[in-house]
Design a protein that fits this description.
This protein is 35% helix and 24% strand. The chain is an alpha+beta fold. The chain starts with 7 loop residues before the first helix and ends with a helix. Bound molecules: zinc ion (2 copies). The site of one zinc ion (ZN) has 5 residues, from loops.
């Protein structure tokens, strides 16, 4: 059912919607077979926002075929067949593959179910082999599904692509048919409406139109965004917010280099294996011409090891704890070029990072404060829906996927769970998805149009501080290892600004807007232009990003230009405004708010920015 076989555990965790979508893939396969009985199916898992099924077929399926396939699907759903589970022996399954019965409506002599046979071989000995039947269609599948085909509510085929069997380019190329399904038609329609809106708000499109960032693949490299002045302004505002918030919460700021010696990552355990694929290859250099060996340096893929060395730089006592080290650190991660996507998947990341070193007794309060910081940010950005995904370890993975400290796992997971429960924060617990050195909390938020984003990750780390030999002198005069909380509520600038562009459709609130105010003159007479320039100067002296448009163009054209550039506030001045020491205010998307005394308007602008008003 999957490219990479999912464990039975993973399958049990399939959500209701994923079951429905995967069941719809069976229905689609049934329909395709009614139209092209020689079709051979490979894998048909649910994916984000829908499902696909890989099919091998002479006929090239195009979107023109979708209505016919959907019509056949409708019949299968109307027939309301049960998804019937049958446990079979491996011999039986091999026999059925050879007769072409698997992934088919009937036996197909001479048309071996070759991909199903391949999938069968991937099932480990001892694991049950199961078929799922709906009507005439029999599939080799571990499930789970909905009860009946009639439970597949509303569906739509969306696209077709090509894919190699098991993702390996040495294998045959298949046609990948994508679709989506929902419980009912209302939800399906809402989804397509949201996707349409998301397209209109695409951060790559708006980012280019507004001149926020560019990716110069030829000179800088793929996945390495260059922030243009307007994007730089947004980025600076976010940093300012983080710095103020963290300062008030007792954080101290540090600054660390972008590279470190190999020893750093060998100690943290990211090298030689765990993280090597996600790091840029090392640089080698000899300190002196006749040094015996070259030193290896790596671009940092995370800030934590550097912060650990800062912790270790001075003797620490219980009186220094908690120690909250914060940095907007730039990290570099090597993502496959096919994975890169605008600001969402990049290779250089400006991270709203901090590491909190604390004692076990301090943990609950510190972790609670981190959650509180999230909620404060959500309010500022008008994020109304969020969930914390709390990923825990599994016993089976100890010593392999997870550091082998069974008691510490249970202890820290309990601490995290207690805080999540008592804080009343919306969370779900996901077993067997923790990080290597401790439980992890992924923070998922929904943009205003209802699209889901993973913004940030918190981790509780009880292992790496020990690897670095970090200790503090406790009250009883013994050395103890601190716990470390990794947290980044604003995630990376890249992902967060990508999210905000969609969330606001580029119409940033005043405090975040790249160009906050533009003063527009009606005409270009010198006294009027001087009046306008003085307003711009006054605003800029208070750190407001204000510009002037003093050209002789028609005022309507000038307003239109400012609207297009998504300037937040326009101050239009004509001779009459000047005489009254006033300005006519327009707000982007809201239109004219009328003429007001200049001093009042300036004070109002400063106030709204100070409050970071929505
Ligand atoms: Zn299935
Ligand atoms: Zn970290």
């Amino acid at each position: 059912m999957q490219d990479e076989r999912k464990t039975l555990d993973d399958r049990n965790r399939m959500t209701e919607l994923e079951r429905l979508r995967h069941s719809c893939a069976h229905v689609m396969a049934t329909a395709i077979l009614r139209l092209w009985p020689d079709a051979q199916f490979a894998a048909g898992p649910p994916v984000e926002n829908g499902f696909y099924y890989d099919v091998d077929l002479q006929h090239r399926i195009t979107p023109e075929d979708f209505p016919a396939i959907e019509a056949e699907m409708k019949k299968e759903i109307k027939a309301n067949h049960t998804f019937e589970k049958v446990v079979v022996t491996r011999e039986q399954a091999i026999q059925d593959s050879e007769s072409g019965r698997l992934g088919g409506l009937s036996e197909r002599p001479g048309n071996l179910s070759k991909f199903k046979l391949g999938n069968l071989e991937a099932i480990p000995d001892g694991e049950p082999i199961t078929y799922f039947k709906n009507g005439d269609f029999i599939d080799l599948c571990a499930g789970p599904h909905v009860m009946r085909t009639g439970n597949v509510g509303a569906y739509k085929l969306t696209s077709v692509a090509s894919a190699y069997y098991k993702g390996d380019e040495k294998n045959p190329q298949l046609q990948r048919i994508y679709g989506t399904a929902f419980k009912n038609k209302t939800e399906l329609e809402a989804y397509f409406k949201m996707m349409e809106e998301a397209k209109r708000r695409d951060h790559r499109k708006i980012g280019a139109e507004m001149g926020l960032y560019t990716i110069d693949t030829e000179y800088t490299g793929p996945g390495l965004p260059l922030w243009l002045p307007k994007g730089g302004a947004v980025l600076e505002e976010l940093e300012k917010l983080a710095k103020e918030t963290e300062f008030a919460a007792g954080y101290v700021r540090v600054k660390t280099p972008h590279i470190a010696k190999e020893k750093m990552y060998l100690t943290s355990g990211h090298l030689p294996l765990l993280y090597a694929d996600s790091m840029y290859p090392p640089m080698e250099l000899k300190e002196t011409k006749d040094a015996p060996a070259a030193e290896r340096y790596y671009l940092k893929a995370m800030n934590c090891p550097h912060h650990h060395r800062i912790f270790a730089a001075e003797p620490r006592s219980y009186r220094d704890m908690p120690l909250r080290l914060a940095e907007y650190g730039t990290c570099y991660r090597y993502e496959q070029s096919g994975e890169l996507f605008g600001l969402m998947r990049v290779r250089s990341l400006n991270m709203n990072d901090a590491h909190i070193y604390c004692t076990a007794e301090q943990f609950a309060q510190e972790f609670n404060a981190v959650n509180g910081m999230y909620l404060k940010y959500f309010k500022i950005f008008g994020i109304e829906k969020s969930v914390m995904r709390f990923s825990t370890h599994s016993k089976e993975g100890l010593g392999k996927k997870y550091v082998n400290e069974p008691e510490l796992w249970i202890q820290t997971e309990n601490m995290v769970r207690d805080v999540l429960k008592s804080s009343g924060i919306n969370y779900v617990e996901v077993p067997n998805e923790a990080a290597f050195y401790g439980p992890k909390i992924d923070v998922q938020v929904w943009s205003v149009i209802g699209r889901e984003f993973t913004l940030a990750t918190n981790q509780v780390d009880f292992a790496v501080p020990r690897k670095f030999g970090l200790v503090y002198r406790d009250r009883d005069n013994t050395d103890k290892t601190p716990l470390c909380i990794h947290r980044a509520p604003l995630g990376t600038h890249e992902r967060f600004i990508g999210f905000l562009i969609e969330h606001y459709a580029g119409n940033f609130p005043l405090w975040l807007a790249p160009e906050q105010v533009r003063v527009l003159t009606i005409g270009e007479e010198e006294p009027l232009v001087n009046y306008a320039k003085a307003i711009v100067q006054e605003l800029r002296a208070s750190m407001v990003r204000a510009e002037g448009d003093y050209s002789n163009d028609k005022i309507n054209g000038k307003i239109q230009q400012a609207e297009q550039a998504k300037v937040h506030t326009m101050l239009v001045v004509g001779p009459r405004d000047m005489a009254a020491n006033a300005v006519s205010v327009r707000v982007h998307g809201k239109g004219s708010l009328g003429a007001k005394p200049k001093a009042e308007v300036v004070a109002e602008i400063l106030q709204a920015i100070r409050e970071r008003r929505a």
